[in-house]
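Known limitations

Files may contain more than one protein. Parsers should not assume a single record per file. Below, a two-record file is shown to illustrate correct handling: read the sequence, read the token line, then continue until end of file.
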Amino acid sequence: VQLQASGGGLVQAGGSLKLSCAASGRPFTTLAMGWFRQAPGKERDFVADISWNGARTYYADSVQGRFTISRDDAKNTVYLQMNSLKPEDTAVYYCAADLGGWGGGEINDYDFWGQGTLVTVSS
């Protein structure tokens, strides 16, 4: 599976960004998809995931109510809508795919990773 993330950039605190991750190489409808992020000098942390059928989503406490994960199976793409951004949301954001279909909150739950897209939130 190849994953291509895009949509990062520089935004002021309180603003919004929408990240996209296009997948290829496997039937998209069999994949659970997740977003993680890694701030400078820190570990890669779970942000959100969505199951293969879109029926289940899960969010980290730090983004609950501000971020929304969604998927468009016709476009083989998963999205992360980020609202009310804070400086502490600054990080490289990575999308990931789980062949098992259900995702999870751990790095080891995923089989494939995209290259990352940088989000910078200024105060």
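...continuing to the second record:
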Amino acid sequence: QVQLVESGGGLVQAGGSLRLSCAASGRTFSSYTMGWFRQAPGKEREFVAAIARSGGMAYYAESAKGRFTISRDSAKNTVALEMNSLRPEDTAVYYCAASLVVRLIVKKNEYAYWGQGTQVTVSS
């Protein structure tokens, strides 16, 4: 089992940047495909980005491509989401998730472990 704790959310103006971090503890971090999801009020939780166990491959939602970058640091057991050119529609609670599935996955029901979420608010 793995425990996930997100940090780094906050309030930012449109066009600004934020860096989210997720600290993992428990079983071997390198065993997990890691992902970021977000959920806006009244909407379904949606996929943002995922990174392979090795960190060598990543996959992004269309809304995140070119603006967001996912990365992982196996020495520190962390995964980060660097978000640039933020828009008001990026406002949501952002969740870190972990999966033992050995491929890049976008479906939230394939992630077994979740953090508590961190709020990101982008003002116009």
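Parsers that stop after the first record will miss the second one. For reference, the second record is described as follows. The mean pLDDT is 95.
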